[in-house]
Amino acid sequence: MPPELQSDARVITLERPADVFTEAFLLGNGSLGVTVHGRPGVEEFDLNLDTVWSGGPQGTPRRDVRPETVADLRAAVAAGDHARADRLARELQAESWTEAYQPLGRLRWRWGQDGEPASYRRQLDLASATTRIDAGAESMEAYVSAPDGVLVAVAHGAGEPLVIDVEFDSPHPVDVTSFSSGGVDWLVAVGRAPSRALPNYVAAADAVEYDRAAPGADGTVDAGMGWAVAAAVTSDRRLVATAVSGFRGARERPSADLEALAEEATARVRAALGREPAELRRRHVEDYAALFDRVQLDLSASGTPQATAAERYFDLGRYLLISSSRPGTQAANLQGIWNVDVRPGWSSNYTTNINVEMNYWAAETTALPEMHEPLFDLARDLADAGRSVAAAVYGAEGATTHHNTDIWRFTSPVQGEPQWSNWQFGLAWIAAHLGDRLDFRWSDEFARSVALPVTRAVVEFALDQLVEDAEGKLVVSPSTSPEHPFVAGGELGTVTAGSTLDQELASQALDRYVRLVERLDDSDDLADRCRRALARLRLPAIDDGGRLREWAPPLLPSELDHRHLSHLYGAYPGSRITETATPAEFEAVRRALAYRLEHGGGYTGWSQAWVLCLAARLRDAELAERSIGILVDELSSASLLDLHPHGAWPGGMIFQIDGNLGAVAGMAELLVQSHDGALSLLPTLPASWHAGAASGLRARGGRTVDLEWASGVLASARIHTATDGDLVIEADAGLRPSVVDSAGAAIEAEVAAPAPRGRARWSWPAVAGRTYAIKVG
């Protein structure tokens, strides 16, 4: 029998099968995604593979742009002619869209008896990455193994032997072959992805097309990659399945050699069948636990339902990141790696104006840096692919990516409204994660081979986007605030100069490039240009209400409840705005967020996750608690998947993984922060988390932190440091910390300044490799 699952915060338990995709449990190994509905007797596994998308390598899709268009656009912006600026911005758009992430199909496995069971329960164990279904006297366990690359499901029953068979159907044209060999029943399915799949919001009779042409002599095609699914059912009631695709790289023609793909999939299943069932499971659990167990959050001592729900949501987010993003896989998209629609919401692509970045906000803080690597791979690819678009569309150096991209590394502005289509700083935002990685753990090799060339491409483009405003300050032009039009002179506008987000991203990229060059003891003219630009760059303004403005000009927001919080980037995920360094802007962020929420903002899962992260940075524990409650109770499904309103979908809601993953980052920031020159302990503790412990959280400078607290007050901490240098800690004022190092020697901690209101700081010289124990009296 499969092991019993414990009814604790690390287990999600439901007492009915999933009626819809958003209620299912998700399994994955970063590449193979499996959606489990929990049907008694007959399970339906929806299969995905991270590399199966519609389309093929597109080169640089764009329309011919007049060389003077960008200059004319900037002139229209400077003149305040927003209608003309809108028209000119549309001339920069490509005559195409990104491609769509695709489902493979549904594997239907009859593992038990028909009929309504006497009892029913399904569970997802976040500690072992397994799901279990109990239906009367029968049970089934399933998991997706990273070491062996397969889905494994094992059924157990009482009484008469189970009747076990397997079927497959797909939304794509597919050939299915069934056969028996050596006492194993096999199913092999092969098909091809669409050669084109338009976004769900584009009305067209031929929205989905398939290329029926035979592959070339080398087995490759222009578009419509091949894929294969292989499944085997054994006499001891096991199902083992996998999938492979013809994806060979973003610039390479994909394979549609279906015979070769079928052989590859079958060989992988055979290899897994060659292992004992217990060994397969052990390899899976050990591989997963080595990642998941790095961080432990235990709020059981709080004894509140809010704390239990928050702990489970935290663990689920880390589980989903491990399951959807591994070294060597594609980055997690809007739905991670799970999707059942040929035209999923927003093509389930990589949306760069918040969503794909939010997927990785928790990677460093919650000790999953390897999971971050697919985003770094995406950044490198886009820095390469985006050079031709920067040159052709803007006449600029460097590289750009607009608000959408896909597996083929589309970087042009797509057709659509300029407020979202024409935002050109997607690569800058993704590249910010390279700097974050180095802040947490410096590596000369990573800095030189990855961060420096990508950041160079970003700043080359950013410098060419900067123009002088009427006061001689430098502003990004053209510029939009993602998806949010403004009101000027009673009319809606979309394009201006110097949106707050673009100014923050430009400032961050320029500053990081300078610091990279200095740290690597390099010197170049580009760094000098960055220094000069930084000295003249316009920083965000504060409006008459004391709120941080969203645009450099005094424009009015058209949607007071807008879901994007782009103008607050400098406070989170950026770190330029802090209470100690920029107190006026810090307060302006607080007021801007309050104003947005007063008018109904935060109504999507990912937007509310951003609210949580900002609440953590603002040290607003009451807002943080409320935000977690909204995420869990209002913006999550029965299986706790994050939801986004979408009128075209049944029930009006669609799954997006970003809210699940962003919430983890926010909860980690409630406990430990390290962006403001100090390692801040329990900066924003919710009232319902009044007692608990956390271990393994990561901080900038190569620090690892363990914490315990009681009655809402820090009791003890352990800090392991991988680097030499002054260690500055921050805690509530009035506490008196005593510090000893790993050798038991007492450490004299000196008071350090400045500290935020109600907090105090202490510092001492830390030595790499040592652990410092802090007790609070």
UniProtKB/TrEMBL annotation:
UniProt entry keywords in alphabetical sequence: Hydrolase
SUPFAM superfamilies: Six-hairpin glycosidases (SSF48208)
A single MF term (Gene Ontology): alpha-L-fucosidase activity
Domain of life per record: Bacteria
GO biological process terms, semicolon-separated: carbohydrate metabolic process
Pfam families: Glyco_hyd_65N_2, Glyco_hydro_95_C, Glyco_hydro_95_cat
Record keyword Cell division present: no
Domain spans labelled Glycosyl hydrolase family 95 catalytic: 278-671
Residue ranges of domain Alpha fucosidase A-like C-terminal in the record: 673-774
PANTHER family listed in its UniProt record: ALPHA-L-FUCOSIDASE 2
Name of the protein: Glycoside hydrolase family 95 protein
Organism: Antribacter soli
